[in-house]
Amino acid sequence: MEDSHKKAKIVFFDFDGVIVDTSETFFAIRKLSDPTLTFEKFIGFFTEKTPDNAAGEAAPADSALFNQLYGEHLAKQKISREMIAVIKVLAGKYVLAVVSSSRSDIIRTYLSTQDILSYFSDILGSDVDTSKSAKIDLILDKYRLTPSDSVFVTDTLGDIEQAHHSGVKSIGVTWGFHAKETLEKGQPKMIVSTPKELFDSIEHLLEGKLIGL
Fold it and tell me: For the packed helices 63-74 and 104-113, what is the interaxial angle rounded to 10 degrees?
């Protein structure tokens, strides 16, 4: 694969809800400590505009137990073939980085089992910083890139706000935690419903290519 340091642009991926949909996993674990929690209230945690409030609100108080259960549930899930194909193609053109509220080591282990870890140059989880905008800034500094050279792919309103904070363009995907109507409140550059649409949207925002061509 081409040396990522020579690439001129970067695609930031949220992990949960974008690369793999873990909304039901998060909800099931969270209900262990709060049986009265509804899915509607749970999803509402991820609309917060403050840095990564959602991770703390959505997880049980015992973080060690949460990480154990989360890792066990995650190991049983698969990434769609369409998403894997998009990741592989994008990695040939751009730096790919994960910025997540989950732990970096858990994400690395999972991506390794899915045989796509090598396609991501950087994985920054909650153990690095609790703010996704701060993690985006760290990676931009690392590669000496500007916000205009990047795009953040996410599935939550709160993350779109984090992208705005860093001056990065955002793309909302509808197969994760938040529905299109919720994502629209953050005014992302684009909202997509399939990995193919995601690829086209990234090419449009980073290369100026027309959608569908």
Answer: 10
* Exposure on the CB side of residue 148, measured as CA atoms within 13 A: 1
Give the residue ranges of the chain where pLDDT is below 70.
Answer: 1-7, 48-62, 211-213
Contact 4, 93 (CB under 8 A): no
Binning the chain into helix, strand and coil, the percentages to the nearest 5 are 50, 15, 35
Query: Residue 1: its pLDDT value, please?
Result: 41
Q: Of 38, 9, 17, 29, give the one whose Cα is nearest residue 157.
A: 17
Residue with tokens 């991506």: 111
| CA neighbor of 194 nearest in space, from 40, 85, 47 | 85
> Could you give the angle at the alpha carbon of 123 between the alpha carbons of 157 and 61, nearest 5°?
60
Beta carbons of 48 and 57 less than 8 angstroms apart: yes
3-state secondary structure 6-53: HCCCEEEECCECCCECCHHHHHHHHHHHCCCCCHHHHHHHHHCCCCCH
Predicted TM-score (pTM) of this structure: 0.88
Quick check: 54 and 45 in contact, CB under 8 A? Answer: yes
Which of 116, 82, 80 lies closest to 199 in space, CA to CA? 82
